[in-house]
Amino acid sequence: MTGSAVVVGAGVGGLATAIGLRRAGWRVTVLDRRDTQERYGTAFGIHPTAQAALDRLGVGEAFRARALPYRDGLIRSPGGAVLARLPLERIERRAGRPELLISRPYLLDALLAALDVPVRYGSEVKDVAALAAEHDLVVGADGINSAVRAAAFGRRSRPRHIGTVAWIGIAGFETGVYGETWGRGRFFGMTPIEPGRTNWYAAVPEAATAAELRELFAGWHDPIPRVLSESDPASWIRYEIRHLYPALPAFVHGGRTALVGDAAHAMTPNLGQGACTALLDAEALTRAVAAHAAHGPDGLPAALHAYDAERRRNAQRVAFGSRTLHRVMNTRHTRLRDSLVRLIPA
């Protein structure tokens, strides 16, 4: 069975889903409430499993053309002492390929280039039932405040604040010092992003202004103060970290609605898996739809059931792990935490 699908949301998960459905022979409409594709954001870390999903969607080559490997990251104390190595080498040994970093706009460019239908920007969805009446499949890829999720499951599972503010930005130089620095109740991270620039991110209990953020990291090891002093605050992005709680009982509803990405399992950013899980969701959903195409009218409900069985527990496990890591990284009991981190195998 093939038919008509509407994908609500043109972020990473929505675009990847639309590409997969088109490859499976579906007629696809993509709606996005924004007026245009926003080119903000910083580096995504793409795990080898998500890279393989991009390959299966036909986007791997374009993605790798703008990505770079991430092989050397350390966990440090604010004074600069090395606590542990990030498990990047272990990931590469097991998968046979490295973790790759890519700027968010570049990943979106690669996905948009592979999509052969236009995105209908400026289309805010207020009546999900009307969409369902017009299409065989409705895919909610509309983020943490998903209208599709609310229509399918109500508002018991909803965004929850965790009391932490995140800041992200780009420094106009290469620091050569990458990884994360864990302090008391706050942390700071740096990764490569492209030649001549460094991606940085920070999480603090509260910081309303750039001056306050700089003050919170004054005295930390080089080059953290320099990164903040030489970055343009006008380009920084500030947001309150939220996650979806409680976990949904399913990622599908009524045999004709599916959720992917943050709409299904929005998580804290600590494991850096938001984009990866969205890509894995999209590829698994569209692969299941294609596999059940010959089953007639019963094909779509069976496909959605297969998708839910493959992805829900895995994605929710990652979300739980990320939330747990957030507590560890932001704890004020740093002596015990740092002692435990030093036990992580090299």
UniProtKB/TrEMBL annotation:
It comes from the Bacteria. InterPro entries: FAD-bd (IPR002938), FAD-dep_Monooxygenase_BioMet (IPR050493), FAD/NAD-bd_sf (IPR036188). Keywords: Monooxygenase, Oxidoreductase. Residues 5-318 form the FAD-binding domain. GO terms for molecular function: FAD binding; monooxygenase activity. It holds the Pfam family FAD_binding_3. The keyword Nucleotide-binding does not apply. Signal peptide: none annotated. This is 2-polyprenyl-6-methoxyphenol hydroxylase-like FAD-dependent oxidoreductase.
